Amino acid sequence: MMKYIIHKTEAKPSFAGEWDSPIWRQAETLQVEHFHPQSSNHHPQTQAKVLYDDNNLYVLFRVDDQYVRAVHTGYQELVCQDSCVEFFVQPDPHKGYLNFEINCIGTMLLYYIEDATRTADGFEKYTSVPKELTQNMTMFHSIPGPITEEITTPMTWYLEYNIPFALLEAYLVPLHQAAGTTWRGNFFKCADHCSHPHWVSWSPIGEALNFHQPKYFGILEFGL
């Protein structure tokens, strides 16, 4: 099973996509590199880093991409259709998880999912997280948008944001993030409606093209 150590930071990131800054050099780099067979021949290199402090998780993605598109600009729109990165986090394996799905221009979809069985309108049991619960999130995206005409030249883009523990605690109480604590989660990159669609994960998802499979989540361990 995949495992990632989340190190603690004493200083907050600057939310400027500074991958090699002193603060982000504290973090380990994970590779989102397990492409589903239904993907096209475009295999973008996707990396992520995560840090934490007493109040937040901090997440930074770097994507060496091509065929970039992003037309969704409203909260809770289907950003997976655009050039998109995703972080699913499950603090308690006996409870649900939150899916932070964010396209390259910073538009987010966020649910709390308790039963990921697919239905006609989404999932068997899920809650659409109200936008007001995300008001203490800071989001940096290196690309302005929308991008209605696909960018076909190679480019590197960054997405950086915080997840307040208070947001998670609206659905998952109590939380524990002391050193040695383990959560579950996965990281993804997709682009469903781009000219070269692809679906890639950090922890492999098996044969089905479905990111919403908690049984395949990797281990996220809080370090020092």
UniProtKB/TrEMBL annotation:
Source organism's superkingdom?
Bacteria
Q: Which residues form the Carbohydrate-binding domain?
A: 28-222
Q: In its UniProt record, which GO terms are filed under biological process? A: carbohydrate catabolic process
UniProt-recorded Gene Ontology molecular function terms: carbohydrate binding; hydrolase activity, hydrolyzing O-glycosyl compounds
Gene3D superfamilies, per this entry? 2.60.40.1190
Recorded protein name is Carbohydrate-binding domain-containing protein
Give the organism the record lists: Vecturithrix granuli
